[in-house]
């Protein structure tokens, strides 16, 4: 990131808070298409899409060198089932049934990949119909299971990825996925985990996206406050069930072609359809531009849990801890892990600022490699954003009620270290 962009972005955050994101509206539902990716810089993306939280589409030029685009697709543009079976046939994969609603999602099961491909072939042969329903392979951690495979390279625009940096560091999880499904498979209405950004690249096939800017989902809730399962369902026009639907904007619609990448802004709810037999690669990610939105989401989630079990507050001695446990079971993170998340991100950047870039920076897929690519000023930007959120977390009453003695370093010490590192870097 150059100095001009860094100065511009810093000024933006000084004058705008995360709540302004919900007021954003695309004129006429327009979404920018980035055709000349070779001349489109990270600073361009940061300024025009990350900071204002705007969606965009990258042309297929950005993925043309990926191994998956060369090997996973036949000359007709269809999934190369033979190649995929050869490489991944024995893997177990998560498969959702798009024809069944379970709570506000689709039920999942684990299937051998070779069984899923057999089903998919038969589904096509039978005119896209099966007694088993429409099955969609979703949220497959293929890169984690097959790290040696030449599948794709994360574009530089998405390289400031705190979620995967953190979960790689603790070796627990990741948010890199492969999706595969027949024509007609779909994903119900939702916003991404932690209100993160997401990017989705079509290896083959076409998708249709229905996008609602952050805040618009409030108009789509029913009289109980629940979001719809299917945002196209006729029942949304029933005012007795969805009283504010008429106040909502029409969705922003995107048809994504093979090879293209869609960038979905933080907190935007969406629904996605496969218009053809489709394979895609998807990442969820958080960075300094939207970590405040993630923190706001966690506060909202905890407040919702507290409301739900408020009647048990007096009988339960460790009520506040129980609320944290319930929140973690629902979202995957609690306040103490969020602190550790911020700590690891901050310490990686402090290490670079204090020690400089060593040989590790030249290695691919490391935090230092990303910082090396984006520059030292980006590391300072990340630390400034971390300080702002960590200051809010440290002052939060629910956080202070927890046993914080296990946190190392203590929040006040980490904040002091961060501020000192920023001051030194800016001298």
Account of the 3D structure:
The longest helix has 21 residues, at 335-355. The model is unreliable at 2-28 (pLDDT under 50). The chain has 2 domains: 27-285, Jelly Rolls (Sandwich), CATH 2.60.120; 290-426, no CATH class. The strands form 2 sheets. Strands 1-2-11-8-13-6-5-3-4 form a 9-stranded mixed beta sheet. Strands 7-12-9-10 form a 4-stranded antiparallel beta sheet, with no helix packed on it. It has helices spanning 3-15, 42-50, 67-71, 81-88, 113-125, 142-145, 162-170, 291-308, 319-331, 335-355, 367-374, 376-395, 397-400, 411-425; strands spanning 32-34, 56-58, 92-97, 108-112, 135-140, 176-181, 186-190, 197-204, 207-212, 252-256, 261-264, 269-274, 278-285. Strand 1, helix 2 and strand 2 (56-58) form a beta-alpha-beta unit. 37% of the residues lie in helices and 17% in strands. With 427 residues, the protein is α+β, with helices and mostly antiparallel strands. This is 2-oxoglutarate and iron-dependent oxygenase JMJD4.
């Amino acid at each position: 990131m150059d100095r001009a962009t860094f100065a511009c972005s810093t000024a933006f955050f000084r004058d705008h808070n995360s709540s302004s994101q919900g007021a954003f509206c695309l004129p006429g539902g327009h979404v920018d298409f980035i055709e000349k990716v070779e001349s489109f810089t990270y600073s361009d993306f940061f300024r025009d899409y990350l900071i204002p939280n705007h969606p965009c589409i990258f042309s297929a030029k950005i993925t043309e060198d990926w191994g998956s685009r060369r090997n996973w697709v036949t000359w007709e543009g269809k999934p190369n089932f033979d190649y995929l079976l050869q490489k991944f046939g024995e893997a177990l994969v998560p498969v959702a049934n798009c024809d069944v609603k379970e709570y506000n999602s689709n039920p999942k099961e684990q299937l051998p990949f070779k069984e899923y491909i057999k089903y998919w072939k038969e589904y096509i042969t039978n005119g896209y119909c099966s007694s088993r329903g429409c099955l969609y392979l979703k949220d497959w951690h293929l890169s984690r299971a097959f790290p040696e495979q030449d599948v794709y390279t994360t574009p530089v625009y998405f390289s400031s990825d705190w979620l995967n940096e953190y979960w790689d560091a603790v070796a627990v999880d990741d948010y890199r996925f492969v999706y595969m499904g027949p024509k007609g498979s779909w994903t119900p209405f939702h916003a991404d985990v932690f209100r993160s950004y997401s990017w989705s690249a079509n290896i083959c096939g076409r998708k249709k996206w229905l996008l609602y800017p952050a805040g618009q989902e409030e108009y789509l809730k029913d009289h109980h406050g629940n979001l719809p399962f299917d945002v196209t369902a006729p029942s949304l026009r029933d005012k007795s069930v969805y009283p504010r639907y008429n106040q909502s904007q029409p969705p922003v619609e995107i048809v994504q072609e093979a090879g293209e990448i869609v960038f979905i802004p933080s907190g935007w709810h969406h629904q996605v359809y496969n218009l053809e037999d489709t394979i895609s690669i998807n990442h969820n990610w958080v960075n300094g531009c939207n970590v405040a939105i993630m923190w706001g989401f966690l506060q909202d989630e905890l407040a919702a849990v507290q409301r739900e079990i408020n009647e048990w507050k007096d009988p339960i001695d460790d009520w506040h801890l129980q609320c944290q446990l319930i929140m973690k079971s629902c979202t995957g993170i609690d306040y103490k892990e969020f602190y550790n998340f911020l700590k690891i991100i901050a310490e990686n950047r402090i290490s670079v600022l204090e020690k400089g870039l060593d040989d590790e920076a030249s290695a691919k897929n490391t935090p230092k490699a990303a910082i090396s690519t984006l520059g030292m000023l980006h590391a300072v930007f990340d630390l400034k954003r971390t300080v702002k959120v960590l200051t809010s977390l440290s002052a939060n009453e629910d956080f202070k009620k927890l046993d914080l003695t296990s946190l190392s370093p203590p929040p006040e010490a980490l904040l002091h270290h961060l501020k000192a590192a920023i001051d030194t870097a800016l001298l």
